[in-house]
Write a structure and sequence with these properties.
about 240 residues; alpha/beta; six-stranded mixed β-sheet; two-stranded antiparallel sheet; Class_I_gatase-like; lyase
């Protein structure tokens, strides 16, 4: 029996000062919006969930350099399907795990804060993976992987796999590595290594880059959200 044609996008609940003037990181909007659009176009129903049922948008992700005019209109329109589902985020206990064939962990650096301890989201992903579904993450969304345990091995579902995600060099160049250390959190590269995975870097820091290893699909940065979701759909179709 083929998996359900329904996708669940995970959203960070965390937020913290990161930018000048104390402006905060949170959900990087396009890293949820682009996958949402890809899944809808591919004929999926799409739901959104966070560990606490709440979220805060990342300040940078609302700026014009990162949010195109048409995307901004969708974001600002509380009656749009995307924004209305964000405004009424599911909590893990409200998710019927058997209804979904793809879980996609969206991002924003705030993901580094809550995803490692997001037991509800991790339990959903672990059950879906054990059932044969696709588990995907983009940019800092890979922070969720070390805590998603493969029931057949007792190890992370990315142990022995190749994954990508935001580069440590990118954290250094953007001047945020000290903030990440102050959160007592590893970079995505370090988290992947600790979980027994092999980290694959994108060709350049901001290149759109996705990587598929079996039923694990990962993307490198905000520019990769769309093609990571497209790769997740492709992997789903191959099941």
């Amino acid at each position: 029996m083929s998996p359900p044609r329904k996708a669940l996008i995970a959203v960070t609940s965390a937020h913290a000062p990161l930018y000048p003037g104390g402006k905060e990181t949170g959900l990087f909007i396009t890293e949820a919006l682009h996958p949402f659009d890809v899944f809808k176009k591919a004929g999926f129903e799409v739901d959104l969930v966070s560990e606490t049922g709440s979220y805060q948008p990342d300040w940078l992700s609302q700026q014009k350099d990162w949010l195109k005019e048409d995307e901004g209109k969708v974001w600002e329109d509380h009656s749009s399907e995307f924004r209305s589902k964000l405004d009424k985020l599911l909590k893990p206990a409200e998710v019927k795990r058997e209804e979904y064939g793809i879980l996609f962990a969206s991002s924003g650096r705030a993901s580094l804060i809550d995803y490692p301890d997001a037991k509800g989201l991790q339990a959903i992903a672990a059950e879906m993976y054990s059932r044969g579904d696709i588990i995907s993450a983009v940019c800092h969304g890979g922070a969720i992987f070390p805590g998603i345990i493969d029931k057949s091995t007792g190890k992370s579902i990315i142990a022995g796999k190749e994954v990508t995600g935001f580069t440590t060099q990118g954290e250094i160049e953007e001047g945020v590595l000290d903030s990440i250390k102050s959160w007592n959190r590893p970079t995505i590269e370090a988290a992947a290594g600790s979980a027994g995975a092999r980290y694959i870097a994108p060709p350049t820091l901001w290149a759109a880059f996705a990587h598929t290893d079996g039923r694990i699909v990962t993307g490198a940065n905000p520019a990769s959200a769309q093609n990571t979701a497209e790769a997740a759909v492709k992997a789903f179709e191959a099941l």
